[in-house]
Design a protein that fits this description.
- The structure is a homodimer.
- The first copy, chain A, is an alpha/beta fold and about 425 residues long.
- The first copy, chain A, has 2 domains: about 210 residues, 3-Layer(aba) Sandwich (Carbamate kinase), CATH 3.40.1160.10; about 150 residues, VC0802-like (2-Layer Sandwich), CATH 3.30.2130.
- Helices cover about 35% and strands about 25% of the residues of chain A.
- Chain A is built from 13 helices and 20 strands.
- Chain A is globular and about 75 Å long.
- At the A-B interface, α1, α2, α3 and α4 of A face α1, α2, α3 and α4 of B.
């Protein structure tokens, strides 16, 4: 007997028929003797419908009130799924996050889980019940509902799995695993049966979109074995087969496996680049530029500071395209204060990264990447590197071309 | 400065445009210096949509899970209304029932409010905020969400008004007050500017449908001055005029007013009558018949036991038409046990009542009622009386005719 957490996305919960299929799948695991906790998302379209209503009333919805509204989609889902299981004769009970002690901070619409009290869930599991818990939400110290932001149900599932010390967290989604790159861009992209936590973190943060990045961080911090697998298969397929499908995010050093140098190509299409020109190069300049940006709750990704020439430097960073205008506005406001000569930007850029733990012990990955792009006539606008990834910023119109060329150059289409 | 509770029905909350109108109305009261608590219903159609989803999954939805789902409609409403007020620059905050200590019993889908902790609401009011609270719901001792059943938001509003010792509870609805009878049946039905609590109780319980009966009981028990008024008027109409519109449910002995003998004609169309024939007339017979019916959660209304003849009696009672088949089934199951010869029923009957506190000191109301019906050739199937009402059961096909004739006979069209 194992303790398993299942997470189902909005598409899997998209209609009452599909919810019945989810129930059949959950029942299969339960009947095999496992303890099962399920974290379903809102029915597809529902969160958008709710946010749409809010925006009809307030163009910039108040975050606390928006969370009050947006959190209801998951509450409906848990109730429906519990009923679908009860209709199959399985004991099931649903809970909203606040009912099972999921505590968050008060950053409405982008809250972080702080703690989970597992008492109630564990009690129900010990009584033989299937427990269904709302994803995406918890409550702060004053019992205000706070949501975790888009994709937050992944994080909820992994956090609950961590709190319960679950044997595995299964993230059922509409893709059947993590690919070497997006199959919509590269036809012969290949599914990986295993990926390390660190690689997954880079793949997720760089826009592979299979899992919310915070869920991967959670999985890493608490060493929760997490598997991404398809919810589109027959719910009654043999359990053994299902249990080994998809992609496992692994924490074990796998010495047997001949580690590929590069495991995947990740990309983010909607990036924007901002350059602050002619800044006096003195201590604290990065803080004075990025401080106000961070205060405006804008996430900054790549950061480059040029070599100083005659005490003056340029400072370049990227933000997601949706926050470009806001970031430009913030910087215009503090331009005088930081003593910059001007601020320029480009909102039509994309980021591409090659990711792989094997990179650590192999030289030449960077040069191969740059050469491949040069062969295609693609100009590199920015470069940033880490132990297991190299990212470049390029004009967005070359994005697909670059991904396909790199996927081929690193032979990711071959086992 | 007064403390006022507003309640808005689903029609008033039916679209984001209408919600903005509700906000304007609430803001008007707030700007006039009043403390305002608002209890909005779910947007019209929303509760039905949610129950429809549940029924697609489970024909007889599990009550606890149904409440989990159905309660979300109000949660969306409070968030939207709070935003609409914030958009007008008014400080507003929304709460679900559980966040402000609305405690109920565990009778899911038909729970009763047991207590309300006013600390949080009062704190916000004292800080100058408008407080929006979900109607229709609370939580039981184990923090399970429980709803109060259809129309429960009226009860929530009155209960919150009672807990806060509010000066008045204003129930905004799509009718402009309580009428002498249903204006759709009798064209010259007249709006009453005042009605006693007892009369309102009879009018509500007898199907006038303006207010949920439990809300009237609450208003009576806690002496909450409650006013039914229209939400369809211009939200910016003068506050003084609005404050005196509609119908006030009054608790004062009004000696100045020449009390009309009869204040209104109430009716319920969808009744059913069940007769248990040939029951041995011994102690406990009523209990043995009605016990199983009550256990099946079926509400019984009128009850008559015939004069016993040779130790055998007949026992007749009414239930709402929707529960007729269920009640017949229950009785067939215990027929042998109670020793009845047979059980017969009629599901095409309606109940009509004349209501008025003036009846107490006036004789002849009953005879006038019976004579009026006889003049129209309408046969009376059952009679039941109380201090302030006389009810008769008749064939449903005569219902409109009977209501019109009685309205005229008691001169309710005249001031």
């Amino acid at each position: 007997m194992a303790l398993i957490v299942h997470k189902y996305g909005g598409t899997s919960m998209g209609s009452t028929e599909r919810i019945k299929n989810v129930a059949k799948r959950v029942a299969k695991w339960y009947d095999a003797g496992h303890q099962v906790v399920v974290v379903p998302s809102a029915m597809s379209g529902e969160t958008n419908r709710l946010i749409g209503l809010a925006k009809e009333i307030m163009a910039q919805p108040d975050p606390r009130e928006l969370d009050m509204i947006a959190s209801t989609g998951e509450q409906v889902s848990v109730g429906l799924l519990a009923m679908a299981l009860l209709a199959l004769g399985k004991p099931a009970v649903s809970y909203a996050g606040w009912q099972v002690g999921i505590k968050t901070d008060s950053s409405f619409t982008k809250a972080r889980i702080q703690s989970i009290d597992d008492t109630r869930i564990r009690g129900d599991l010990d009584e033989g019940k299937i427990v269904i818990v709302t994803g995406f939400q918890g409550v702060d110290d004053e019992d205000n509902i706070a949501t975790l932001g888009r994709g937050g149900s992944d994080t909820s599932a992994v956090a609950i799995a961590a709190a319960l010390k679950a044997d595995e967290c299964l993230i059922y989604t509409d893709v059947d695993g993590v690919y070497t790159t997006d199959p919509r861009v590269v036809e012969d992209a290949r599914r990986m049966s295993k990926i390390t936590f660190e690689e997954m973190l880079e793949m997720a943060s760089l826009g592979s979109k299979v899992l919310q990045i915070r869920s991967v961080e959670f999985a890493g911090n608490y060493r929760v074995p997490t598997r991404v697998l398809s919810s589109l298969t027959d719910p009654l397929m043999p359990l053994e087969e299902e249990a080994n499908s998809g992609t496992l995010i692994s924490f074990e050093e796998d010495t047997n496996m001949e580690q590929a140098v590069i495991s995947g190509i990740a990309f983010t299409r909607d990036e924007a680049k901002i350059t602050v020109l002619g800044v006096p190069d003195r201590p604290g300049v990065a803080y004075h530029i990025l401080g106000p940006v961070a205060e405006a709750n804008i996430e900054v990704d790549m950061i480059i500071q040029n070599q100083s020439v005659q005490g003056v430097t340029d400072f370049t960073f990227t933000v997601s395209r949706g926050e470009y205008q806001k970031a430009m506005g913030v910087l215009e406001g503090v331009k005088g204060e930081i003593g910059a000569s001007s601020i320029v930007g480009d909102a039509k850029v994309s980021k591409i990264s090659v990711v792989g733990v094997g990179m650590r012990s192999h030289v030449g990955v960077a040069s191969k990447m740059f050469q491949t792009l040069a062969d295609e006539g693609i100009n590199i606008l920015m470069i940033s590197t880490s132990e297991i990834k190299i990212s470049v910023l390029i004009d967005e119109k070359y994005m697909e071309l670059a991904v396909r060329a790199l996927h081929k150059a690193f032979e990711l289409d071959k086992e």
